[in-house]
Amino acid sequence: MQQNLAYAVWQRIAAGALNDGDVERLAEEIGLSSRQLRRVLLQHFGVTPVELAQTQRLLFAKKLLQETGLPMTDVAYAAGFGSVRRFNALFAERYKMAPGSIRRASATDSEGIILRLAYRPPYAWDEALQYLAARAMPGLEAVLEDKSGKSYVRSVSIGDRQGWLQVRHVADKQQLSLQVAPALAPVLMPLLAKVRNLFDLDANPLVMESYLQTDTLLAAQIQRTPGLRVPGAFDAFELAIRAILGQQISVAGASTVAGRLVRRFGMPIETPFAEVSHHFPAADLLAGMPVEEIAQIGLTKSRAATIRNLAVFAVEGGLQMPAGISLEDAVARLKTVGGVGEWTAQYIALRALRFADAFPAGDLALQKAAAVAPETRITEKQLLARAHPWSPWRSYAALLLWQSLSYPKQSKD
């Protein structure tokens, strides 16, 4: 538990949670005192919160210097430094050289900032895009294909910054290439954390696969698609709303309704992509909206009420789970939202909250995929029993099962 807590804190700091230097605020968000927070990081990483944040900022600044043509001032502020002078001094102290000495030769980012995001191979890129494409919300995001291959595109709104991003696969370098609008430079640190979460780039597929392939039900799919990831969420609130829209209807039907929600209530934005035209509606907007108005996109009043309930929950900080919270407690917390049941809570935990052991056993597709005979399915209780040995990697098992439905099932006598 302590190790999970330390890793969760590290993730928040790497995403810029201490760029304002407020250790007390971070500790309060996590549910610890500042002294406890300091003790956890010293025990697991040997550094204080401020020291860890400084290291992360310097590493991020070095990445920007080596991969982009951003002006030095933009690099300093994007990496969370309060001033260029402070950045120059700390960089020289740590690396024994001036920041300018390591910057890339080219310095033109007029069409977008491009960064490289590494992953542990293998990576099932086509399957990741297939999953995201099927669940994409029209107007907000899309999977495109051109002469350079397939890519994922979407609008971005972080703080007071708006723009767009495009992600491509660079297979020979075992990287994803991320291009973002220049206007997003000040929020690159949290943006990269969101993209890494969306594409599950910190996973070690060999660990999960070696554990799960001992089960014959999963082994065949692992051989077909090595490197399968659990697509996460760029934003927890929009994923949670998408999960609610997916209750008891098809994936395609949920995407259609989600597109109506985006275009009806989301702010418009100009992007290089005809398919991306709006931001996702803000939580405070939906929280204050009459149920009848939300229902006009083609929802029952009860489903529209669940949307508003979730928006109120998000505005009140409900989706900001304490670091180190257990899966059981996170699911219980989500189920306090009126209209959110076990399936929805587990799905949100699986994708938005990145619980590796989340498992929506009530999902009919999973029950069908786990059945022995074609065109049959097992019960939720049977599936939970079947999935028990897959713990603590049940979320990856779920993706394998969903993916297996793309292949014909052979009858077994």
From TrEMBL:
Matching SMART domains: AlkA_N, ENDO3c, HTH_ARAC
EC number: 3.2.2.21
Catalytic class of the enzyme: hydrolase
Example GO BP: base-excision repair, AP site formation
One cellular component (GO) term of this entry: cytoplasm
Top-level taxon in the UniProt lineage: Bacteria
Reactions this protein catalyses: Hydrolysis of alkylated DNA, releasing 3-methyladenine, 3-methylguanine, 7-methylguanine and 7-methyladenine
Keywords associated with the record: DNA damage, DNA repair, DNA-binding, Transcription, Transcription regulation
Molecular functions per Gene Ontology: alkylated DNA binding; DNA-3-methyladenine glycosylase activity; DNA-7-methylguanine glycosylase activity; DNA-binding transcription factor activity; sequence-specific DNA binding
Protein name: DNA-3-methyladenine glycosylase II
Naturally occurring in which organism (per UniProt): Undibacterium terreum
